[in-house]
Amino acid sequence: MASQRLASFVSQLSPSKTGVSAITAQHPDDVVITLALRTPLTKGKKGGFKDTDLDFMVYSLLKKVLEKSKIDPNLIEDVCMGNVSDGKAAYKVRAASLAAGFPTTAGASSVNRFCSSGLKAVQDIANQITEGSIEIGVAVGAESMSMGGDRLEKPFHPEIVKNPDSNDCMQPMIQTSENVGSDFNITRKMQDEYAAESFRRAEVAQKAGWFDDEIVPITVTVKDPKTGEEKEVTLTKDEGPRYGTTAEGLGKIRPAMPQFGDRTTGGNASQVTDGGKFTLRI
C-alpha cells in the first residue's frame, strides 16, 4: 500500500509541481485533520490540573470534541491516546470515550513512545485510514504528570544492563539534555537566550489571544494544599508562559542536575505539564 501511494505521488510530479507545491497538492485519498483542540497546559503538581486525574481530562476533552465537530459519534471507529506516565491509560481512554458519547463500536487504545506518544497516536490513526481499516478516527495525547511519572521503579535485570545501550535507557531526561548539548556544542548561554525568546513569543501570542480558538475551557476541582479546601475553577489559559523572562534572569538559575552538566535548568527547560490535545482525522 505504501509503495502504491509513493508511486502515485511520484507520477503526479512535474517540473511545475515540485517542492512545497507537490507536497501540499490535494488528492482524493488524502488523510486530513478536520479538527484540532486541546486543554490548557498547566503546571504539574501545583497548577490547575494537579488534582484532576487523566480520565476526567480526557473525558472533558472528548466531550468538547463532539460538541465542536458536530460529527455523528457513530461514525467514529477508533480512538488512540498517546500517554507515557499512566499504566492504566488504555482503561481510562476507553471509559472516558464511552462516557463522552462515543459508541461501544468505536475501539480505544493507548500507545507510549515517550515524548512523541501523541504523535504516535496521530500516526496510528492515519495509518489505519490509509490502509482501509477505518475511515474516521480520533487521536489524543494526554498526560497527568502530577499523578504519574515515567521513572522506573527498579533497575533492569543485571543481564540487561550489561549492554551499555540498554543501561542508558535508565538515564533521566536531563542527562539526555546535557549529552545533546555537549555533542552539538550548545552552551548554557545559548539555551538561556533561546528559552527567553520562547517565553517572549508565548507572552505575545497569549496576550493577543492566538491560542484561544484551540483551547477548550475545562472546569475542575482544585484543592488548597495548605487548608485542604476545595473549589471549582474553569481553566482557560496555559500556565507555562512567564511574562518578562530575560536571558540574564535565566542565567542566574542553578543547574537542575549538576552531576550531569551545567546547561539545563528549571528556567530553560520545559516545565512538568498536565494537559491533553486532540485531532479528528478523516
Automatic annotation (TrEMBL):
Cofactors required: K(+)
Keyword Transferase on entry: yes
Region (Disordered): 239-275
Catalysed reaction, written as an equation: an acyl-CoA + acetyl-CoA = a 3-oxoacyl-CoA + CoA
Pathway: Lipid metabolism; fatty acid metabolism
Keywords for this protein: Potassium, Transferase
Gene3D superfamilies in alphabetical order: 3.40.47.10
Annotated Thiolase N-terminal domain residues: 31-276
A Pfam family assignment: Thiolase_N
Protein name, entry field: Thiolase N-terminal domain-containing protein
Taxonomic lineage from the root: Eukaryota, Fungi, Dikarya, Ascomycota, Pezizomycotina
